[in-house]
Amino acid sequence: MHALEYSLEQTSLVRTAINLLSINQTNGIDCPGCAWPEPKPGKRHKNEYCENGAKHINDEATTRRITRKFFRDHPISELAAKSDMWLNEQGRLTEPMVKRPGSDYYEPIGFHDAFDLLAAELRGLDSPDEALFYTSGRLSNEAAFLLQLFARAYGTNNLPDCSNMCHESSGAGLGETLGVGKGSVSLDDLHEADVVLAVGLNPGTNMPRMLSALEETKRNGGHVIAVNPLPEAGLIRFKNPQKVSGILGRGTAIADQFLHIKPCGDLALFQAINALLLEAEDAAPGRVLDFEFIDTHTVGFAEFADHARQVSWSDVLDATGLSRHEIEQVAERVRASKKVVVCWAMGVTQQKHGVATVREIVNFLMLRGNLGRPGTGVCPVRGHSNVQGDRTMGIWEKMPQSFLDALEREFAFTPPSKHGLDAVDSIRAMRDSRAKLFVGFAGNFVRATPDSDVTEQAMRNCRLTAHISTKLNRSHAVCGETALVLPTLGRSDLDIQATGEQFVTVEDSMSIVHQSRGRLTPASEHLLSEVAIICRLARRTLGETPEIPWEKFESDYDVIRDAISRVVPDFDEFNDRVRNPGGFTLPNPVNDYRFNTASGKAQFTCNTFDRIQVPPGHLVLQTMRSHDQWNTVPYAPNDRYRGIRNGRRIVLINPDDIEELGLVDRQLVDLVSTWEDGVERRAEDFRVIAYPAARGSAASYYPETNVLVPLDSVADISNTPTSKGVFVRFEPVKDHGRASEVTNAMTATG
Ligand code: SF4
Fold first, then answer.
1. Whose CA is nearest to atom 2 of ligand 1?
2. Which stretch of DSSP H or E encloses residue 340?
3. Ligand 1 midpoint to CA 228 (Å)
4. DSSP letter assigned to residue 730
5. Which of 54, 360, 638, 642 has the maximum number of C-beta atoms within 10 A of its C-beta?
């Protein structure tokens, strides 16, 4: 009902109906809301979408339009002062716009001239490495493949993407230990698991249909253990909107056990569970661990076991905030289970030890052979709808040489082998004027990234910024000396090219590659598809490239897929297989006990956690999304699942911590983060809300609190910003008397 109300505020009944009837159906639109997979064809519900997916697809299908008059009426400096919500509400972009040097206004520019301008700037750089080509996970496989091809043919591997800020730690940890940076489970595995550990994720808001899958796990007799600093409503009790019992009843209690863990305590938790399993094996040799799996498929067990046995329980209890009994209960449950899956998201990856935590999760699963068999495996849950596919297509600053060699064979040029810049390094490069030109495909770079003040200044340092977008966002208002806004088709729009109607493809969190086909009349006759924009820009920039058929790529997306089938592993007969209902599943070698590591076996690792030294008077802040939000875009100032209304500048704190810090519920404070660089970062005017957060922790909304995350505070190895581990203190400020505006329906007790 919430979704329908929102949809009808945005667009017509007809457009709403067209979208909702086709979203996540076999021949329809892939929901851009997140990367959660659909059930197999034949098992799909007629309404195979969640509230958030419906809101998002109809937000894109809005009938509101931004015309050239809008840009005449609103100078860029004014747009920069508007909220994310206001910018999004203005509607779809309808024609290319340019900001000239020194101007405070966007003015119209045709696509032809825009490409000439951008191509001339690209050709004028001293080095291709002065350009950055950013991608958000909304880009289709076809557009992503062409973008990386263009960037490499132009001469750079500077392909930062949103994955750098979310699951890079998963890719690094899984790649090192299992040889592939993707999840190994299917929906069937989740359904038949005896135990699913859901760690550092909030499916009710970020991947809602995951809850339907966990409901099925429960129905089949499985147990769900939720691990989170906040008791997320969907995981605690879920009401399935696709069922009458879900709408009318009390819903299903999803989590059998809830571990109210401190932020960044996950590595200590898994190390402690592993120590308990080793201890149990010592007490009952041959009855706890799966030595057939360990001996046949892994290396490094002895060193790992020595290391894990030395874990300090006082450090574990301090790092996790849990009791030993709670952790023993998990170990007992795992010992009683034959099939275990671990799912995780940003709560695990966006911390200093994100990669080490993923490695320790792998250790945990390998101890009892919980890999490769039905009902077992690793499940990093992706947020952006095609973020996994974009990486498969080559959007990565350090693609393996085998991929670059395949590109060379297909297109007869030598791609650069020097690694490019990821998102954090791109900001540093713009800040230091080593990068001068930024091209962003989808996304909202300045809001999705850490250290907002630094990032915004870095963006303003650029000679030229260009954004290929469907709707207005802050990255258009915080721009370079010259700036371009190039409007493009959305997922829900019909895509007609010279050879007729086209579809694109995506890869979901469980490696299923399938079609997505928009149905709606585009927002304006001036829009180009992302594929067309890349092809035309490439032709203008690179000139004649006889071996790269940009024109054919643009007119017929089958030609792109044919090229992909010759370059990207496991995409043979792409065009045929993706036309099967539901598409096809990419193989994960882990499920055949093949490990693409140096030793050819899965790798046990030794990981060490720190006892976090939180400065006195500080809490560990995690940034999070509200329920009425899609990525950087809030749809409303509410957070229904957490009981918050009318407030985004709020900070959730445990009542005991509020008292200990000398604060009171609803007090107005500035959040001040402190870090080893000595810089104090400040987010002003946040309302303290008493909430059952884990002791010692606080939680507040992204992107408003990105300003508090230091650019250089990143996860080891993956360079992912540590947005789940920011030390903050609270400075009371003079109240403006708006306390009553924010309401909190959540019971503020543990
Ligand atoms: S779970 Fe994700 S992909 Fe599915 S409908 Fe909801 S937002 Fe869309």
1. 34
2. strand 340-344
3. 21
4. E
5. 360
